[in-house]
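Is flavin-adenine dinucleotide placement plausible here? Inputs below.
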Amino acid sequence: MFYLTDEQKMLQDAARRLAEEKIAPRAAEVDRSEEYPWDNIKLLTEAGFMGMTIPREYGGQGLTYMDAVLVIEEMAKVCGVTGRIVVEANMGGVGAIMKYGNEAQKNLAAGLVLAGDKPAICITEPGAGSAATEMSTTAVKQGSSYALNGIKHWITGGGVSKLHLIFARVVEDGEDKGIGGFIAVRGEAEGLKVGTREPAMGLRGIPETEIIMENLVVSEDMMVVPPEGLKRGFAGLMNAYNGQRIGAGTVALGVAQGAYEHAVNYAKTREQFGRPIAEFQGLQWMLADMSIGLSAARALIHNAALNAKGGFPNMREAAQAKILASETAIKVTNDALQIHGSAGYSRNLPLERMARDARMFTIGGGTAQVLRTQVAGSILEMRTPQTRDGYARLAAKKMAAE
Ligand SMILES: Cc1cc2nc3c(=O)[nH]c(=O)nc-3n(C[C@H](O)[C@H](O)[C@H](O)COP(=O)(O)OP(=O)(O)OC[C@H]3O[C@@H](n4cnc5c(N)ncnc54)[C@H](O)[C@@H]3O)c2cc1C
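Reply from A.M.:
I modeled the complex. C-alpha cells:
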C-alpha cells in the first residue's frame, strides 16, 4: 500500500510474524477451550501491542489508529479473539480515558493496559441495546462520590478485565444530569460484580458477561466527562467509540482475509474431475468477488483511520467502514467455507470458526441497521430520532425556538 510509511510496514511485518508463529498455532484451542488467552496477552504486551496508542508521556508509544489497524488485521487473520483484544487495548474505553480523562485517570488506565489489561467498556443493558441512552444504570451523587446501581450485559472481558469504563445516568439532588463514564477496577472496587456468561456463537476466547453494580462507590475524580459536558456526555463519549468501530471493522476484515487466503490455497490444491477446483469459473468468480469486498472494506477502514489524524475517526467514515467490513466478512467467510466443501464444515479446519467469529460484527458496537441510520443522518444533515414521538418533539422544539 503506497501510503504506508516504512515504520508502518515494519510494524505490520512484526505483527504478521508474531501472529503466524505464535498466535495462529493456539487459535483453535482458544476457541475450543473458551478460555481467555493469557499466553497471548503476555506476547502482545512484550511486543508493545497492548496500549500502543497511549501517548508517550504516559508510557505508551503514541502510535496512531492507522498503526493499530495494521496490527489488528494481522492478529485477526489468524485469531479473531486476539484481534479483538488489541482493539480494546488501544481504542474504545482506553481511547476515551486518554482523551477526556484527568491525570489520575490517564495514569491509572495507562498503567493497567500497558501491563496487559484489556479494558471493558460497559454500555449495553438488557433493556437498552441500540437504544443505549435509555440505560437505567444510575450514578447518584453522594458527597464527593457516586453510587452506581444497575446491570450491564454482553460486556466483553467481564471477569478478565480489570479496568472498567461504565456508562451511567448521573443523578444529582434527584435531577437527571445526563450520561457520564465511571472508572472502576475489578478486584479493588466493592460492588462491581461479574454475572452470567453468555454462551456466545463465536469469538469464544473472550467472556461476554453481565457486569452488576450494587452500590458501587466511585469517587468523583473517576468520572469521565467529555468536553461537551454531561448533557451531551453520551454523544461525546461515543466519539471515542468511533475508534472502537474501525477496530471492530478491522477484526472482521482480518478474519475474512484469513478465510479468503485459506480458500485461495485450497482451490489451487484440491482436485476434482481431474483438475484443481480453481479451474472452475464458478469458484474463480467467488474468489474475485471476495477479493473486491476485502479491498473495498480495507480502503474504507484505512480512510477513516488516516483521517482521524491523532483524534477520533469521523462518525460517518467509521460507520461506513464498519458496515462494509462486517457485512463483507460474513459473506467472505461463508464463501471460503463453501469453497472447502465438507472440509470447510469440519472443525478440523478454521473455516467454521472464522464464519462464527465473523458473524458478530454487524451486531456488537452498533448494529448495521443503526449505523446506517447514523450515516443517513450525517448525509442528510438532520437528526434521526428513533422513538415514536421523536420527530414531533423535534418539530415542537423548533417551533418554540422560532
Ligand atoms: C459479541 C458481542 C460483544 C459485545 N460487547 C459489548 C461490550 O463490550 N460493551 C457493551 O456495552 N456492549 C457490548 N455488546 C452489545 C452490543 O453493543 C449490542 O448488542 C448492540 O448495541 C445491539 O443491541 P441489542 O443486542 O440489544 O439489539 P437490539 O437493539 O434489541 O436490536 C435488535 C434488532 O433490531 C434492530 N434495530 C434496533 N433499533 C433499530 C432502529 N432504530 N432501526 C433499525 N433497526 C433497529 C437491530 O439492528 C437488530 O437487528 C456486545 C454484543 C456482542 C454480540
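Short version: The two ends are 52 Å apart (CA to CA).
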